[in-house]
Amino acid sequence: MVDGFPADATSFLILFARLGAMLMLLPAFSDESVSPRIRLLLALGLTAGLWGLLSPQVTGATANPAALPGIIIAETMIGLMMGMIIRMLFQAAAMAGSIISLQVGLSSALVFDPSQGGQAALISRFMNVAAVVTCMALGVHHLWLQSMMGSYALFPIGGMPPWGDFAQLGVMAAGKAMSLALSLAAPLVVYGIVFNVGLGLIARLTSAIQIFFIAQPLNLLLGLGFFAVMIGAILTAFAAAMAELAQTTWI
Fold first, then answer.
1. pLDDT in the model for residue 62
2. How many domains does the structure of the chain reveal?
3. φ, ψ at 210 (rounded to 5°)
4. pLDDT, mean of residues 192-215
5. Domain limits at 193?
């Protein structure tokens, strides 16, 4: 056991490079409210938990100690790129929240959002947090962990990262995130169009009244009420889309 310890430690380090890098960028786990020490402990615990299943994948990579630095760098890059693609897809919730904020007249109500690196609309921040809670409640994070295991079949240890494939996945993720954000916010977009068209017709009929100042509180009331009715369906659709994307992309 003592003789085998260096090889086991090297294998653990190789696994930790990819799993830890990916975990550092996954939604919820990468939030700034989670301290770096907690993230490190989670990454170490995840690597230890998957050690029994993934250690056979690393057996051949420990034979050549001179190649270890290159393997560690390649594994870290693969983990970072996989985590970034999932994070890009997850930003659809925040983008949908920004679109909804614009429709209901709350685009100027800003709060600090650590996950977006600055100020964000209030509903955008709410959607971001609610999306994390919904995905955790419905077990979508299990698919992220499963994709970590499946990545070793797609990207074996010791090979160069497929830069072209990751570039195509990044473009796909950006397009999917924007289309998903627009589809999630579609009910509120339709509401905004109907409300503003009706407001314009009323303004034409009663030109002597400053209808826009009167209608702003009504827009907030109706918009937030409609958003409260639709929030459950929006979050469920988002979690289902994230699960489908995880299954079709990595697993």
1. 66
2. 1
3. -75, 80
4. 77
5. 5-249
